[in-house]
Task: structure prediction
Amino acid sequence: MPSIDIRRPHTLPLADARAVVEKVAERMREKFGMQSHWEGDTLAFSRPGVKGGISVSPDQVRVSAELGLMLAPLKGMVEQEIQRKLDEHFR
Result:
């Protein structure tokens, strides 16, 4: 199963970084039907074909995910989209 692990430093206060991640998660729910919930400072998400989490620390955001067989061929595209979103919200 292909995996994604992307880390991005940030300078936001932890509460603000969590708010950004929650905003992104809301969009993921609307657009892709993702289910998500907070487990401490990690937003766990899942839908058929993918599961993972977005961890927020005082200085870093980490996106990790396991892709199912159907999404495996799209790994590069998924990683690019995650990078784009991180650039948009954490630069």
Summary: The radius of gyration is 12 Å. The mean pLDDT is 93. The first helix runs from residue 14 to 32.
